Amino acid sequence: MLDKLPVNHEIQLYRISTELVNNILKHAQATQAEIRLDQQSNCLILCVKDNGKGIDIYKMKEGGGGIGFKNLYARAQELDAEVIMDSTGIGAVISLKIQTS
To answer: What is the pLDDT of residues 49-84, one digit of tens each?
Structure first.
């Protein structure tokens, strides 16, 4: 069972999740997507992945992504979360790692 989060953290996680799903629907040309929220010892991990055309991770990390990715990084910063992206071959995996203690 997940520990209770502050309401503002819950709202940010919801907004991040919906932004990532919207990006999949608009851009990924994916046929499958998965959203997971897991708790590991002292951190919470939000993981969103798809089987679409992938993304240019270097471009996203350099600020070349659209407003959705700029919002993602801004929201992650508010949560003190680490953003982890992987897009090797088919699809993309975007994870946020949030320290809970």
So the answer is: 999 999 888 777 666 677 888 889 999 999 999 999
In a domain, 2, yes or no: no
State the Cα–Cα distance between residues 62 and 77, nearest whole angstrom. Answer: 16
Query: How far is Cα 69 from Cα 83, in angstroms, rounded to an integer?
Result: 11
Q: What is the CATH number of the domain that holds 34?
A: 3.30.565.10
- Count of residues in the chain: 101
Residue 68 lies in a domain: yes
Number of domains the chain is built from: 1
Cα–Cα distance, 90 to 52 (Å, whole number): 6
Structure tokens belonging to residue 42: 């002292």
